Amino acid sequence: MSAAFPLPKGHGLIRRANRVDLPEIVRLLADDPLGQTREAFTNPLPESYYRAFEAIEADPNQFLAVVEQEGRIVGTFQLSLIPGISRQGAWRAQIEAVRIEHTLRNQGLGRVMMEWVIEYARQRGCALVQLTTDKSRRDAHRFYQRLGFISSHEGMKLKL
């Protein structure tokens, strides 16, 4: 069993995801208008999710996490620690797939979760934390700005 990290203020705990958590993680990822078009929350889940999980689990620089409250998964994120030559050999933490149960949004859980992520990255020696968020997610932009993130770069993606 993975270590669990208690969150302050009764917000539950963060722990490394297990394979059995995948349906709940995918449920959270699919629980918004963009996620509904990207994810396949079916029973059974497509095998591609399990292959991705195995690759993440095998890489020590990956941390697929769940936030658990009273035995129920209510949040998730993936943290990738990336070594780099730029910035004098700095490591960076890339945050992806951040989701909070829709019934718990705007109650402080997201802030507590991101503060935990930032501190975890700091303790792992990262020089910066970065993320991307879809341009249509205006509420998310405001949320990350309140945490101190700045829109310093223009992100680009090429769908394959």
Q: Quick recap of the structure?
A:
The protein has 160 residues and is an alpha+beta fold. 34% of the residues lie in helices and 27% in strands. The chain contains six helices and six strands.
Describe this structure in words.
- The chain is an alpha+beta fold and 160 residues long.
- Strand 3 and strand 4 form a beta hairpin.
- The model has no long low-confidence stretch (mean pLDDT 94).
- It starts with a strand and ends in a 14-residue tail after the last helix.
- The protein has a six-stranded mixed beta sheet, sandwiched between helices.
- The protein is globular.
- It is built from six helices and six strands; from the N terminus they run E-E-H-H-H-E-E-H-E-H-E-H.
- The longest helix is centred in the last third of the chain and has 15 residues.
Calculate the mean pLDDT score and round it: 94
Q: Ends: how far apart?
A: 36 Å
The portion of residues assigned to helices is: 25-40%
Helical run tally: 6
**Range of strand content:** 25-35%
Q: What are the secondary-structure elements, in order, as H or E?
A: EEHHHEEHEHEH
Q: Which stretches are poorly predicted, pLDDT < 50 over at least 5 residues?
A: none
Morphology: globular
Describe the sheet with the most strands.
6 strands, mixed
Total beta-strand segments: 6
- Radius of gyration over all CA atoms, rounded: 16 Å
Class based on secondary structure composition and strand pairing? alpha+beta
Strand order of the largest sheet: 1-2-3-4-5-6
